[in-house]
Design brief:
Elements: E1 7-13, H1 18-26, H2 31-39, E2 41-46, H3 53-62, H4 66-69, H5 83-88, H6 104-110, E3 115-118, E4 132-134, E5 147-149, E6 152-157, E7 164-166, H7 168-171, E8 179-188, E9 191-202, E10 210-214, E11 219-222, E12 231-236, E13 249-254, E14 256-262, E15 265-270, E16 273-275, E17 280-281, H8 286-293, H9 298-302, H10 315-342, E18 346-351, H11 353-361, H12 374-402, E19 407-412, E20 418-419, E21 422-424, H13 426-432, E22 438-441, E23 444-447, E24 454-457, E25 462-465, H14 481-493, E26 505-510, E27 527-531, E28 535-536, E29 549-550, H15 552-556, E30 561-563, E31 569-570, E32 579-580, E33 583-584, E34 587-592, E35 600-601, E36 606-607, H16 611-619
Parallel strand pairs: 1-18, 1-19, 2-35, 2-36, 3-4, 3-18, 21-28
Antiparallel strand pairs: 2-34, 4-17, 5-16, 6-15, 7-8, 8-9, 9-10, 10-11, 12-13, 13-16, 14-15, 19-34, 20-31, 21-30, 22-23, 23-29, 24-25, 25-27, 26-27, 32-33
Length: 637
C-alpha cells in the first residue's frame, strides 16, 4: 500500500466541529466534503488537553501528548522564569526551540522527503534541508509580518496637499492636460516611520485619468480599473505584536489602481503592503510567493457575492467572509506554487475561519444562552452555514490543485467549541482566599509577589504555587507546598455558581495526577483544572488572560460570575469529550486515498496523537521520535 501513495497532504481546519461537518454534508451544503466522506473515512477525534490551538496542532504534527511535547496553550511558563515572562511572550510555544518532541516533517526531511508547512500554528523555523515553512495569516514570534498595511483608498486632487502639476512632455507623457504628480504615503499600523512613493496621473485624450508608475527607464501606464504591476518600497516596522520584528527595515511590494473620479482628480486604491523577507524558511522565496499567489485575475470574481446563495449577510461580517474566501484561494495557490517549485511529498496546511466564527456566534445557536433570540439565532445559523460553505470551497480547491489519485488526504481539526457565557473573575476568587495580592504601580495593578502564595494562570487553566527556591520571587517554603496546593484544590473544587449552586470545575488535578490525561511535565502547573461549560474565564479583553496584572474591573467589582455575550464559544477550558446539547469540543478526522477504506464512519473516536504515526506508516518511515499515538489500521484496507 505504501508504494501507491505518492504524497500526503494534511488539511487543517481550525475549530471545525464533527457535528456540523456531518450535518451540513448530509444536508447538501458541503458537496466537496460529502464526496470526501463517501470516498474515504470519517471519525470523531479527541484532542489533547488543553483543547486549544498551539497544543493540538503540535500534537497532530508530532504524535505526542502535551506533557511530552510541552506546548501547553498560548502562554507557556517554564519553571525558574519570572511568571510575568511567560505571559508577555504569547505564542512562543509555536517556535520549534520550545517544542520537546520531533515534528513529522523533520523526520521526513531526514528520509529525503520534501515537505511544505503552510500557515501552520507550530513550526518556526522549519530547520529542513529539503522542505519549506511558509507563514501567512498566522504569525510567529520573531518573524517578519507578511502584511504591514491593508488595502486603502486615497483621493488625489489638484488641491490635495503634496500634489503638484508638472509638464508631461518633460516626463515623456503626452497629455492634453497637465500631469498630476503625487505621493502615496504609507503610515500607521505596523509602519514605524512614514514611507512614500511618487506616482503620476494624466489624461491623454480627455476621456479620463490613467496612472503612470515610474519604472527603471520608462513609465508603466495603468488604465482605470486595472491593477498596476508590483511597486517596491522600503520601510521600518513598528511594534507589531510579533516579538522581535520591531524596528526592522524591510523591503515591501504593493499594487495600485485608479478606482474612480472625484472633482479635479481621481480616487486611487492600494493593495496590501507585503514584506518580501522573513516569513519563509529557508528565506529567499517570499517575493516570488506573493507574486505567484496574490492579485491574479480570478480574485476579482471571487470577491463578488455568489448569485446562487441568498447572501443577506452584511457589514463587517460580510467583509470577514469575503476576506476568508480570498485567503482560502491564496493558500491553495501558495501550496500549488510550492508543489511546482519544490515537489513536496508531505504538506501540512492550516485554515482558521471556523474557530473565529465559533468564538463569536456559537452561543446564539443554543436556546439556553441568556442572550438568545430568534433573529440573532437565524443570523448566526446563516453565518455559520456560509462559513462552512467557504470551508467546503477551500477543501475543493486544495483537492483540485494539490492532489492526485496517488495522494493520501487527511482533513483534521484541532478542537471544536461549546457555548459559553458565565464568566469567572479568577483573580477575585484567589484574592478572597488570601492566595493572591496586587499592588498599584505606574503601570496599573501588578502582582505583589511578596504576598502571593498561588498564581492563577489562564491558557492553560493552571495554578502555580509561588515556591521558594524554584520561582524567582517565591515565598512558599517547600514544607508548606502541599498545604498551599491542597488549599488551591479545595478552592477550585468548592467553587459553585451562586445562582444555581452547581460546581464550576469538572476536574481538578495535581501535576502528578495529570499524567493520566497526557500532561504532567515540568511545564504543567502545580494544579490544573477544567471548567464545566458554559463557564469561562475569558470574555474578550486580552487583560483577562494576563493575570500578572489587573484592572479596576478585576479588583473593584464585587462579583464572581456574570453573563457575557462578547465571546460565545470557548474550547480551551473544557475537556476534549465535553458536550452541550448537539455541540461537542472534539475534533473532526477524515481520510481518503490509496489503501484507505471508502464510505466508512468509525464507531469509536480516534485521537489526534494518531495522525502522525499513521502518516509515517503509510509513507514507509518510522514514526516521529516522541510519538505516543497508534497507527489507525482500522481506516486501511
Amino acid at each position: 500500500m505504501t508504494r501507491s501513495v505518492k504524497d500526503v497532504i494534511v488539511i487543517g481546519l481550525d475549530g471545525a466541529m464533527y457535528y456540523f461537518i456531518k450535518r451540513f454534508a448530509e444536508e447538501g451544503l458541503l458537496p466537496n466534503v460529502k464526496k470526501f466522506i463517501d470516498d474515504g473515512v470519517i471519525a470523531e477525534a479527541f484532542p489533547c488537553p488543553p483543547t486549544d490551538t498551539p497544543t493540538n496542532w503540535t500534537t497532530i504534527a508530532t504524535g505526542a501528548s502535551t506533557g511530552t511535547h510541552g506546548v501547553a496553550s498560548f502562554y507557556m511558563h517554564i519553571p525558574g522564569e519570572p511568571f510575568e515572562l511567560g505571559q508577555k511572550l504569547r505564542s512562543r510555544g509555536q517556535l520549534t526551540k520550545y517544542c520537546k518532541a520531533e515534528y513529522l516533517w523533520n523526520l521526513a526531511d531526514r528520509h529525503g522527503i520534501p515537505s511544505l508547512v503552510l500557515n501552520y500554528p507550530a513550526c518556526w523555523p522549519g530547520n529542513m534541508r529539503h522542505g519549506y515553512v511558509c507563514l501567512y495569516t498566522w504569525s510567529m514570534p520573531g518573524t517578519t509580518p507578511m502584511v504591514v498595511s491593508y488595502p486603502k483608498e486615497y483621493s488625489v486632487t489638484i488641491k490635495s496637499q503634496g500634489v503638484e502639476l508638472v509638464d508631461g512632455e518633460r516626463l515623456g507623457l503626452s497629455s492634453v492636460r497637465p500631469v498630476i504628480a503625487f505621493r502615496l504615503v504609507f503610515k500607521g499600523g505596523l509602519i514605524k516611520e512614514p514611507a512614500s512613493v511618487e506616482l503620476y496621473a494624466f489624461d491623454p485624450d480627455g476621456s479620463g485619468y490613467r496612472l503612470a508608475v515610474p519604472r527603471a527607464r520608462e513609465f508603466e501606464v495603468v488604465d482605470s480599473g486595472r491593477w498596476s504591476d508590483w511597486i517596491p518600497i522600503t520601510l521600518r516596522i513598528a511594534k507589531s505584536g510579533v516579538q522581535g520584528a520591531e524596528g526592522k527595515e524591510v523591503k515591501c511590494i504593493f499594487k495600485v489602481k485608479h478606482v474612480g473620479m472625484v472633482e479635479d482628480g481621481l480616487k486611487v486604491a492600494t493593495s496590501e503592503l507585503f514584506t518580501t523577507e522573513g516569513w519563509v524558511d529557508p528565506s529567499g522565496l517570499e517575493e516570488d510567493v506573493v507574486k505567484s499567489s496574490h492579485y491574479l485575475d480570478d480574485e476579482l470574481a471571487l470577491m463578488e457575492p455568489r448569485k446562487k446563495v441568498e447572501y443577506d449577510i452584511f457589514g463587517e461580517e460580510a467583509r470577514f467572509l469575503t476576506r476568508q474566501r480570498l485567503e482560502a484561494l491564496r493558500i491553495a495557490r501558495m501550496a500549488t506554487y510550492f508543489k511546482a517549485k519544490t515537489r513536496w511529498r508531505l504538506c501540512f496546511l492550516h485554515y482558521h475561519i471556523i474557530d473565529s466564527v465559533n468564538h463569536r456566534f456559537l452561543g446564539y445557536l443554543h436556546r439556553e444562552f441568556p442572550f438568545y433570540d430568534e433573529k440573532k439565532a437565524e443570523f448566526a445559523w446563516k453565518y455559520l452555514e456560509e462559513s462552512y460553505r467557504i470551508l467546503d470551497e477551500f477543501i475543493g480547491l486544495i483537492l483540485k490543485t494539490c492532489t492526485s489519485e496517488d495522494t493520501l488526504t487527511i482533513v483534521v481539526s484541532d478542537h471544536a467549541a461549546l457555548p459559553a457565557w458565565r464568566a469567572i473573575n479568577i483573580r477575585r476568587v484567589f484574592i478572597e482566599e488570601g492566595l493572591l495580592t496586587y499592588r498599584r504601580s505606574s503601570d496599573g495593578y501588578l502582582v505583589d509577589w511578596s504576598g502571593t502564595k498561588a498564581f492563577p494562570w489562564v491558557e492553560p487553566l493552571a495554578v502555580w504555587v509561588n515556591l521558594e527556591g524554584r520561582d524567582p520571587q517565591g515565598i512558599v517554603k517547600q514544607k508548606e507546598y502541599e498545604e498551599v496546593r491542597e488549599q488551591v484544590i479545595d478552592v477550585l473544587q468548592g467553587l459553585r455558581d451562586p445562582e444555581t449552586g452547581e460546581r464550576v470545575a469538572t476536574m481538578v488535578l495535581t501535576r502528578e495526577e495529570s499524567v493520566n490525561i497526557g500532561w504532567g511535565d515540568e511545564r504543567t502547573g502545580d494544579v490544573v483544572y477544567f471548567l464545566r461549560p458554559p463557564y469561562t474565564v475569558w470574555c474578550g479583553p486580552l487583560e483577562d488572560l494576563l493575570t500578572y496584572m489587573a484592572t479596576e474591573r478585576h479588583l473593584g467589582e464585587d462579583w464572581v460570575f456574570r453573563d457575557q455575550s462578547r465571546v460565545t464559544g470557548i474550547h480551551g477550558y473544557y475537556l476534549p469529550n465535553d458536550r452541550i446539547d448537539r455541540f461537542s469540543n472534539s475534533s473532526i478526522f477524515m481520510a481518503k486515498g490509496p489503501g484507505v477504506k471508502r464510505g466508512v464512519e468509525l464507531k469509536k473516536p480516534v485521537r489526534l496523537m494518531d495522525v502522525a504515526p499513521t502518516i509515517s506508516y503509510i509513507l514507509g518511515i518510522p514514526p516521529p521520535r516522541d510519538s505516543e499515538g497508534r497507527i489507525l489500521h482500522e481506516i486501511l484496507l
